[in-house]
Fold each of these.
Amino acid sequence: YVQHYGGELGKKTEEEAKVGRAVAKKRESRLNKSGPVDQSLADQFRTGRLFAKIASRPGQAGRVDGYILEGSELAFYQKKMQKKKGKGKE
């Protein structure tokens, strides 16, 4: 992400590395094209914990495929985990 977009997720950059005009222009166009990062996803990176869903096929020993949750899917699973936390206290 740092090399592709020129910034880190979850960290505030105080010093920017010196890059050429062409590289800066390319990074800016990529960032504008993809849009801003969702706030809930940035919060996950800041805390160092990402919610992900494992989507590997059965029988694939030693390999795990998956994706990072974001948007409505992330909100759904966060609500589900909050409910589960509440049940354990009773």
Amino acid sequence: LPLYDGHHISLYVGDDMADFATALKSCMDAGVVWVNPKYEDKVTNLNTAKKWNQFRFKDILDLETGKQVFELEHEVRSVNHRGWTGLVRR
């Protein structure tokens, strides 16, 4: 596969902020939360994640070994994010 070229995907998690906080904690515990210097959302903790309603990670890890198996930026958004277009806006 080609090396990471800067493209990314966005996804929305959970039903509420608690689900979003759990997703952030899991990524923080795995050490994969990432700040993309191209954007102003410098998320490094729950408070800044709540401010922006999103956080980023780019390393996809093997859960057994903890080693990176692929690199693709994920922009993980709460359902409170302004981009949410679901049927119910929370």
